[in-house]
Design brief:
This protein is mainly β. It has two helices and 14 strands, in the order βββββααβββββββββ. The strands form four sheets. It has a five-stranded antiparallel beta sheet with strand order 5-2-7-8-14, with no helix packed on it.
Amino acid sequence: SKLATVLNLTNHDYFNLAGEASPAGSAYSQLVQINANNYSPTDTTQIPLPIANGVPVAGTPFDFRAPHTIGSRIDDVSAPDNTPSQFNKLTQGKSQLLIAQGYDHNWILNKQTAATTGPDGLNLAARALDPSSGRHLTVWTDQPGVQFYSGNFLTGTLVGISGHTYRQGAGYTFETQHFPNSPNEPAFPSTTLGPGKTFNSTTIFAFGS
């Protein structure tokens, strides 16, 4: 083919390290750590704002550089989220946690170092831990971002294998990928695949207890 295409693939599996049949809300008590100093705030339609390197997570509920439970700050809509005021028209001045009804954002992964290099030479993206069971998850990837989503739009319309419905707090995702809306933001890492090129990407979800 002589044509380029846009390609940005990810994986949307939900995780709850307490187990599939654990009660709704149980995911909020699990610890998450994300290897990112910056994240991408969005407009009211959850499209990332045109900020090439995002904004710092420091001083916000989006700071998962050290482990925090998902639920500990998810409702703190009065906390700073470091969205520049110049974008107030696009955000309507709303908190990022209010726009997304929780976490549903792109974290810009830190540049790889020897300390964050894992299997297959991949970069550390995130970790999760369920204190009650001791189960833990480590996410390694070659992608520049991870969309951490806390299951905000689970409304009880999905039924699991044990017959329980999935609601808010039932699970979360780590979607490793390039940044959302990259085709429309030249400053974001490119998602264009050139003619004759092959796309390969690797993400590892490693579990332990």
